[in-house]
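Exercise 3.2. Students should predict the tertiary structure of the chain below and write it as structure tokens, then compare their answer with the key that follows.

Predict this chain's 3D structure.
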Amino acid sequence: MYEIGALTAIFRRLGRKYPRPNTLKKIFAAPGSKSSHRVFATSGYATPSAVVYPEQLVVYHAGIARTVFIGCMKVNTIFLFSFSCLVIAPSFYVSPERPNWTVPAVIIGGAIPMAFVTYTSMPFVGYVRVKLPGFARRSKDQLMQWAQKVPPNTEIDLMTMRFSGRPRVSRMLLSDLRETRARWGIANLARVSNSTASASNPWWMGKDPHIFYVADNGTNNRKSPISETIALRQVMWQRIKDRIREQ
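Answer key:
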């Protein structure tokens, strides 16, 4: 009898600590049902149907093929320069048949492709993301209403590539961007306030880029049948570009 009483007390304590089966049924009810909405509403969490779009929405993407190609070009030119300095140049130096001027010529010849690719691909943007407010994430109509007049304090992320091909995400406000024709048209967007953001970076990370190139013929402008996601990107990015022109 003592054992039965002890087990009964334990089960009563477990019943107070853990929810009953009926409560579990309400919590794991199908999305959209009255039970699930009631539980989410009383717990303080948003209902699953309240959010349609993520907080960070991609409004432009250059395409995986183009991004991978540029990254591979950066890595290949680095290997070419290293091979020229560590293999070809020493072999020319120890060879009695080679004149002395061939050693610096090989090093310079290996550095030219790396410098050219680095200079031309530095402003390249792989994707653009914007931070949406809470109400704009609930439906497409509210998102389009917000996009009609994008606030200047909207946070925007632009993904570029470092010297080694690694991605770098630069976060700024929409009001910091202006149209430009820098580097003979290689860049079409410029960041006007870059000193404050770069001051917080460690010395080994270098400065954040201040010029960017967002191609007009990325995945946003496909002529073939496009999905609803790409169609949304087209509208959103076009309105953001119009907003940048007005600044």
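Discussion points: The chain has a mean pLDDT of 80. Residues 45 and 145 are 25 Å apart (CA to CA).
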